[in-house]
Amino acid sequence: MKAIVVGLVGVLGAAAVGTADVAPLRMRATARQLQPAAPAAEAPRVAPAELDALGLPLGLPLGRATRADVRAWLSSTGASCRHDDTGRVLSCRDVARPGEPRIDALTVRFDHDGRAYALQADRTGLALVEAQAHFAGVAAALDRAGAPIEVVGTPAETAQPYTRAERRYPHGALTLSHFEPGSIRLRERYQAR
User: Fold this and answer.
1) Is residue 77 within 8 Å of residue 124, measured between CB atoms?
2) pLDDT tens digit sequence for 47-69
3) Do 140 and 59 share a domain, yes or no?
4) 106-122 pLDDT, tens per residue?
5) Residue 43: inside a domain, yes or no?
6) How far is CA 155 from the centre of its chain?
7) CA–CA dist 50, 74 (Å, integer)
8) Range of 14's domain?
9) Between the CA atoms of 40, 151, 156 and 98, what dihedral angle is there, to the nearest 10 degrees?
10) Amino acid 57: pLDDT
11) What is the number of other CB atoms lying within 10 angstroms of the CB of residue 11?
12) Residue 119, in any domain of the structure
């Protein structure tokens, strides 16, 4: 089967440029259409409900946890807490959770219905190796819940002062900052989706 192949000349004109046997082209195109697409390799994902079971964010199911839930969670940590004048922001100091570095400052924000919708945890005074290990562990758990939308640096790069590593997710961010020598801050921020 022969067909005339036409090429565009300029924007509006056309001219015959030759003939070609198009049957083999049709057969290859049909064969490609009949082959099933290979499934894309994807890391195992964690459903939002399972995110809470991972202890993230910090064991508080944002969007569902009430003030009473937060107080109960904090009761075993030895934290010193106070509400702001509006009652919508709870600030805590020295939050100790078993198996984790101490949280120096924890801020929990509540919506108008009294449900926790955002929190920020800051850890300072950590040894660099301890901060890097905690960052890696939390990042791995967050990655199972969904890929980060932005990555800046790596924990290893924070060995030098004045560097940071950060992973941003749709529901929060994890930042490891090495300010001046010996000054390390690990910050976790989460927000209800």
Assistant:
1) no
2) 444 444 444 457 788 888 999 99
3) yes
4) 999 999 999 999 999 99
5) no
6) 15
7) 21
8) 2-32
9) -90
10) 57
11) 5
12) yes
Residue 42 covered by a domain: no
Question: Across all residues in the chain, what is the average pLDDT?
Answer: 76
Measured distance CA(41)–CA(97) in Å, rounded: 36
DSSP element (H, E) containing 172: strand 172-178
Place of tokens 């000054």: 183
- Give the count of alpha carbons within 13 A of 189, CB side only: 11
Same structural domain, 23 and 70: no
For 79-139, what is the HEC assignment?
CEEEECCCCCEEEEEEECCCCCCCEEEEEEEECCCCEEEEEEEEEECCCHHHHHHHHHHHH
Kindly state whether residues 16 and 60 are assigned to the same domain.
no
Q: Do residues 69 and 90 make contact, with C-beta atoms less than 8 angstroms apart?
A: no
CB 122 within 8 A of CB 185: yes
Q: Is 16 helix (H, G, I), strand (E, B) or coil?
A: strand
Question: In sequence order, what are the residues at sequence separation of 6 or more whose Cβ sits closer than 8 angstroms to the Cβ of residue 58?
Answer: 97, 103, 106, 119, 121, 188, 190
Report the predicted TM-score, pTM, of the whole model to 2 decimal places: 0.69
